[in-house]
Design brief:
The protein is built from 15 helices and 16 strands. With 421 residues, the chain is an alpha+beta fold. The protein has a four-stranded antiparallel sheet, with no helix packed on it. Helix 1 packs antiparallel against helix 2, helix 1 crosses helix 15 and helix 6 runs antiparallel to helix 9.
Length: 421
């Protein structure tokens, strides 16, 4: 939790940012509910509404909330209370991919609250997989109707704007979520001859649609990747090694629908376990509550995430996601030097500049990097040095120091001015 001095300082930074913000209004703004949070709770207040973009922008500049969320739904009366009085009209279909849910190996290499480049790449890979392997081929959603936003912290939000999906209720959305996460998949749906003695085990082919094709492709990919990938699917080491040794034969068999190319004891139990593990890996990637709750509030694109100081940035297009770097493209604050005291901080890169590692260091960093560490709880502002600009120093400053001091004074003064507006 931020200290009082840190909170006041970052509120000024937020006010400065929001005073010059562009249009962040969502489609149908007058029908959306808004919620706002502080540095302790991401949604402290809700049931707010705004008639237009100008009114929303004025509110953000005046109040400078650390968290801004809006409803996936549209309502007749978005500021109505209780929820039943709002008059639900429909809701966008939204999926939340968060690196902390992916059980990535890198999560064992750093504190749980830290986000490394591998975390962000893992979240991006799952986002791409969701769109390319489920939303477009299995549900028929048009790519142009799918938008991707960096969450501002550990992952991505995928918004589907589709007339048919907009009117879906909670039960229908749960069915979509269950399908994507592989919930309640029946093995006999893909292996019609499983459990029948003396009969060849017939199974899905890579070209099959739906989960059958995903299972076939998942196993082939794991076989080609080697023993460790097969073990990630719950296959015991000796069986994984055997599949790897006979990889060409296994791949040929699965490609033709013949899953009996190699002798596996208790094949029904074996492949059921593999399918379960593939489904679990997919299930871990999706926050089901976001997808199924028709009243859910989600981060407003273009606003700041109060746990990082980064912008919840909208990616230009799905194709642009591959090259999107949130640690460069979602930076909100400038490069003015801010004095901080760190705890133990892993190495990281922002705006193309490498920082750290640090441990109990008293340093000055660009505002965007200092903010990131303080808001994530890995540093605090140095109260003496951070506010040195407001004090008269006895020593003679160099020209460079004077210019730097002037820039910092202007930066803080502007932030204070906008915070009072």
């Amino acid at each position: 939790m931020l200290g009082e001095n840190d909170s006041r300082f970052f509120k000024r930074l937020l006010a400065s940012f929001y005073s010059g913000i562009g249009n962040v209004a969502p489609r149908g703004i007058s029908k959306r509910e808004f919620g706002f949070g502080d540095f302790e709770r991401k949604i402290r207040y809700r049931h707010y509404s705004f008639r237009d973009e100008a009114q929303l922008r004025n509110y953000l500049a005046k109040e400078a909330p650390p968290f801004v969320s809006y409803s996936m739904a549209e309502y007749e009366r978005p500021d109505g209370k209780p929820m039943e009085s709002k008059g639900w009209l429909g809701a966008d279909l939204v999926f939340d991919i968060d690196a902390s849910d992916l059980k990535l190996k890198c999560r064992n290499e750093h504190p749980s609250s830290w986000v490394c480049s591998k975390c962000l790449e893992g979240a991006k890979a799952e986002t791409t997989k969701l769109i390319e392997e489920f939303l477009i081929p299995d549900f028929g959603f048009a790519e142009k109707g799918i938008s991707v936003n960096f969450s501002g912290n550990r992952g991505y939000h995928i918004h589907v704007e589709d007339v048919g999906a907009f009117k879906l209720g909670g039960d229908a959305r749960k069915q979509i979520s269950d399908y994507i996460t592989g919930n309640n998949i029946m093995l006999t749906s893909f292996f019609p001859t499983i459990g029948r003695r003396g009969v060849r085990l017939e199974g899905p082919r890579p070209s099959d649609s739906g989960w059958g094709g995903k299972l076939a492709n998942g196993v082939i990919k794991a076989v080609n990747s080697g023993t460790s990938s097969l073990m990630d699917l719950g296959i015991e080491k000796k069986d994984a090694q055997m599949l790897t040794r006979k990889s060409a034969e296994v791949v040929l068999g699965i490609s033709t629908g013949n899953w009996d190319k190699i002798n596996i004891p208790k094949k029904g139990e074996f492949w059921a376990n593999v399918l379960k593990n593939i489904a679990i890996k997919q299930s871990d990637a999706i926050d089901r509550n976001v997808s199924t709750d028709i009243y859910h509030l989600i981060r407003l694109p273009g606003t700041i995430h109060g746990d990082t100081g980064l912008v919840a940035k909208k990616v230009r297009s799905f194709k642009a996601l591959a090259d999107f770097d949130p640690m460069s493209e979602a930076i909100a604050f400038g490069a003015e030097q801010i004095a901080i005291r760190t705890t133990k901080v892993p190495a990281f890169t922002m705006a193309g500049t490498a920082f750290g590692p640090y441990e109990n260091a008293e340093i000055k960093l660009p505002a965007y990097a200092a903010s990131y560490l303080v808001l994530k709880g890995f540093a605090s502002l140095d109260p003496k040095k951070a506010h040195a600009a407001s004090k008269v120093e006895k020593k003679e400053l160099t020209l460079e120091e004077k210019e730097q001091r002037a820039r910092l004074e202007k930066f803080v003064a502007d932030a204070e001015h906008f915070g009072q507006g």
